[in-house]
Structures are given as structure tokens and as C-alpha cells.
Amino acid sequence: MTAPALPTLTTLVTGPTAGARERAIAAALRPGEDTAIILEGLADGTSPLAGFDGSGWQPALHRIAPGCLCCAGNLVLRVTLNRLLRRPPARLFISLADATHVGQLRIFLSAPPYDSLLSLCSDLAA
Q1: Which of 29, 57, 69, 80 has the smallest count of CB within 10 Å of its CB?
Q2: Are 90 and 8 in contact (CB under 8 A)?
Q3: H or E stretch covering 88
Q4: What CATH number is given to the structural domain containing 82?
Q5: Is 121 within the bounds of a domain?
Q6: What pTM was computed for the model?
Q7: pLDDT tens digits, one per residue of 43-84
Q8: Helical ranges in the chain per DSSP H
């Protein structure tokens, strides 16, 4: 994996429901910006991220099964990130179904090899 010219701006998103987290992400998106979103958990059928706008621009959505991303879901997250970072987006949102270990996830994302690939921003609370 080669490092991009600039690290991917990465925001962890927390909130009580998948819908609330997805609405917060949708509000933070900048149409046209190369963006990827990792959504933990199942869609509730009314995602504001589906068909984001009529211009044809759509962020790359990656949905993974719910489970603590720093514990049980670590391997799934690692594989998803590694695939995604082969062609790194400018911006990445990671939506967490459970914010209990958000600090541990930040440590995981700040360690090699992700430390040179990601630039962690402030968390977004839905």
C-alpha cells in the first residue's frame, strides 16, 4: 500500500441510531469531493445517503456488520480500510454503531500503517 500525497481526512461518527448517524454524515458531505463512508450496522431502509443527489455524484458506501470495530470487528475493518485505501479518497467517514470504544478505535487508526494514510479529524456526534 503506497501513501497518498495527502492523508485521507477521517471522521468517526457516533450517535444513537444508524439513521441519525447517516443524517449527520449526509449534512457534512461536500458534493463532488471524493468521499468514502464505512457504515457499521444494517440500514433501516430510509438512508439519507441513498441517491445522495441528482447530479450523479455519490460517495462510496461500504457497509459492514455491526460489532465493536476495535474488538470483534477489527479484522473486517482492517480489510475494508486496506481495500479502500488502495485508491484513497480525500475524505472518509466511519459510522460507529457503538461509541463505547471510540478512543481505542482512534488509537488503532493512529497506529501504523494507518498513521501515514489517515488524518483523524474531530468526531462527529449525531
Answers
A1: 57
A2: yes
A3: none
A4: 3.40.1010
A5: yes
A6: 0.87
A7: 666 677 766 555 566 788 888 877 666 666 578 889 999 999
A8: 18-28, 74-84, 102-110
